[in-house]
Specification:
With about 450 residues, the protein is an alpha/beta fold. It has two domains: about 280 residues, Zn peptidases (Aminopeptidase, 3-Layer(aba) Sandwich); about 150 residues, 3-Layer(bba) Sandwich (Glucose Oxidase, domain 1), CATH 3.50.30.30. Helix content is about 35%, strand content about 25%. It is built from 13 helices and 16 strands. It has an eight-stranded mixed sheet, sandwiched between helices. An eight-stranded mixed sheet has the order 3-2-9-5-6-7-8-4, with helices on both faces. Strand 14, helix 11 and strand 15 form a beta-alpha-beta unit. Helix 2 packs antiparallel against helix 13, helix 3 packs across helix 9 and helix 9 packs across helix 13. The chain binds zinc ion. Zinc ion binds next to helix 9.
Amino acid sequence: MTRPLLLCLLALNGPLSAQWAESDQARAGALFEEALGNGECYERLRELTKGIGHRLSGSPEADAAMAWGAEVLAANGADSVFVMPVIVPSWTRGTLCSASCEEMPLRVTALGGSDPTPGDSALEAPCVVVRGIEELAELPRDQTEGRIILFNRPMDPLLINTGSAYGGAVDQRGRGAIAAAQAGGVAALVRSMTHAYDTVPHTGAMYYADTVPRVPAAAISTVDARLLAQHIEADPSNRVSLAMNCRDLGEREQGNVIGVLRGSERPHEIIALGGHLDSWDIGEGAHDDGAGVVHTLEALRLLRAIGYQPRHTLHFVLFINEENGNRGGKAYAAAYADANERVVGAMESDAGGLVPRGFSIDAELQEVEWLQSLLPFLEPYGLNSSRQGWAGVDISPLKEHTPRPVLIGLMPDGQRYFDYHHSARDVFENVHKRELELGAASCALMIMLLDQHL
Ligand SMILES: [Zn+2]
């Protein structure tokens, strides 16, 4: 079938000069057939999550995941595999994290990077409930000093884009401990970042400032946040107890694991696809970001399986330390900032193994228009939406490069993602085989399109 009208439209200005070719059509079909008919990513995810488990930066499990990733990259057909060394932080949750309000136990877990409670023993104090950092700053000091601060602003349920709802609430997790200490508080409890009304706390990164005392910080489940707020409202003299023995273990060397397919026409120009190998240390990091890891590994296998010969050099990158520092992403960008080899495009899968809906793009206008022009052709694969904006944490430092690479994010359906995110529910059993396979094929397809049209 020929499309003369479309062929007339192929000549956009700029680097992305073609729209969609018959060869793209054939390759897209072959990639999806291979992914759905002979897919290996689901079993790879089982190996990663059930064989190795969660894998926080600096942990022995993250070492094991790096070795496993290098093996699979080689098995899936990389021309070469190398490790880019990265110094990462190391922190452990320890064995103790408990909280209660008077006689009522509260389901909590330490936020990543938190200090323990003093002497690893229970810290007990009255509690004040706020909607967020701004509300806390407005309270008179005698209402906050010596208290445990409960940050209880939910993710906005009215936003369709759950990532935006997360972005609108996560400041209290990242900076809650700093704000609590500035107000004279002794600890921070942060309502879990999820739309789900559930009893599992969702952890995540938190930070301290050099000039502010360090107070312990923990996530509390959404059910318990509500119960605690009701208890405090009923009797503001009710006291909360919190005990944690987490530890900062310093730093150590791990690294990004990178598989290479050498380009035939532009070997010094790189197009990267990646996910992050590290995960939080509760659950199994199945959606976040085991899915992105196996999408990356499987995309390599799929391109090999259909006999695809890339024009640019392709990097399949398993990043380290996305969750608590993004040092892997920063190291990768720094390595190609002014080298002979430069990154011209990068894609990330770090939004879960859920059914793919399309792609986000962080790029110049004409590149955004290029992606939009592809949507009619991507529609048969269910990839019918594009959004201009955030593409991924690991690849975001590449934005500093000149010229700026095209950055693309796989955009799966996000409505259930935060049910699992950073919690004990982020396990292999909550990833759907077929949805995962569709994501892998979508990644392979977009990398192939970038390679053809950049
Ligand atoms: Zn992630």
